[in-house]
Amino acid sequence: MKADSQGTSRRPLVAGNWKLHKNLADTRALLDDLLGRLQSKEAAEIVVAPVFTALSTAQQRLAGKNIGLAAQDCCEQPQGAFTGEVSVPLLADVGCTFVIVGHSERRELFGETDEQVKRKVLAVLKGGLTPIACVGETLAIREAGNTEKHVLAQVDAIIDGLETLDEEPLRAKTVIAYEPVWAIGTGRTATPADAQAVHAAIRRRLAERLGPALSDGTRILYGGSVKADNAASLMAEPDVDGALVGGASLDATAFAAIVAAAR
Ligand code: PGA
Fold it and tell me: Is residue 14, in this structure, part of any structural domain at all?
């Protein structure tokens, strides 16, 4: 638990983003392997995000276990003529409690904008699930010295959406994931100090616009080449409340070690 000036505590969250990997048989095998490696009570809340087609299979495997289910994306709309989309109510129906929104691969490869990310965050919250909203800068932006400006603009778009919600508890559920694009899948990780600096800036912005209570309670995850050997030092930073893990989440030993690093 991370305590803060207000005495609020934030339970660490470790989320595995499986991306476009693992068929049904592999999903069962990976979950069984992982369940065998976790303690029955972990300090961290644990979530995995398989592909859409494996969510139902994962739900059956995870019934009564301490691993939650996340989707990797969602439709902004609850239903209708939106061929190929999957809505938040349908994700809830299949047991998801979290949805990753605005991952850099969605933004870069599929052209998702800050506006769309904002609308998806709202759709997730209104559907009763928890968004993990991703933000992060490219290498060019970092090298130009514009990291904070870029990331905070992405955060501002999310806050613009949250401001339209009347219910404080609903707003406060959102999880932010800071994922520098240059660190994703590259083996390059932000140093704990660099990650902390951005996390602190995000938390300050949340405080300025939505108040200190919400800011103190919001979990901000780090993502980008998180591995068993760097997870503890990243999560030791005061504003790093867990990890969004890609590659290492496909390996039960590595993912269990990252979960253990949050103890
Ligand atoms: P990575 O991916 O851990 O493989 O760098 C992180 C992510 O894309 O969420």
Answer: yes
Q: What is the 59 CA–ligand 1 centroid distance (Å)?
A: 23
Count of residues in the chain:
263
The parent domain of residue 31 ranges over 7-261
Spatial separation of the C-alpha atoms in residues 249 and 50, rounded to whole Å? 10
Copy the structure tokens of residue 157: 């778009």
Number of domain units in the chain: 1
- The protein residue with its alpha carbon nearest to ligand 1, atom 1, reads 246
Rounded Cα distance between 227 and 246, Å, is 9
Q: Round to whole Å and give the CA distance between 15 and 39.
A: 16
For 193-197, what is the mean pLDDT?
98
Q: By the 8 A CB rule, do 155 and 113 touch? A: no
What is the rounded distance in angstroms from the CA atom of residue 96 to the CA atom of residue 55?
Answer: 8
Determine whether the shortest distance from the Cβ of 185 to ligand 1 is under 6 A. Answer: yes
In a domain, residue 151? The reply is yes
Closest residue by CA, ligand 1 atom 2: 246
Predicted pLDDT at 79: 97
> Which tens digits make up the pLDDT trace of 237-255?
999 999 999 999 999 999 9
- Is the pLDDT assigned to residue 6 strictly greater than 90? no
Alpha carbon distances (Å) from 58 to 79, 99, 169: 23, 15, 28
Ligand 1 proximity of 245 Cβ (cutoff 6 Å): yes
**Confidence at residue 223, expressed as pLDDT on a 0 to 100 scale:** 98
CATH number of the domain at 169, please: 3.20.20.70
Decide if 137 is inside a domain. Answer: yes
Q: Is residue 110 part of a domain?
A: yes
- What pLDDT does residue 1 have? 79
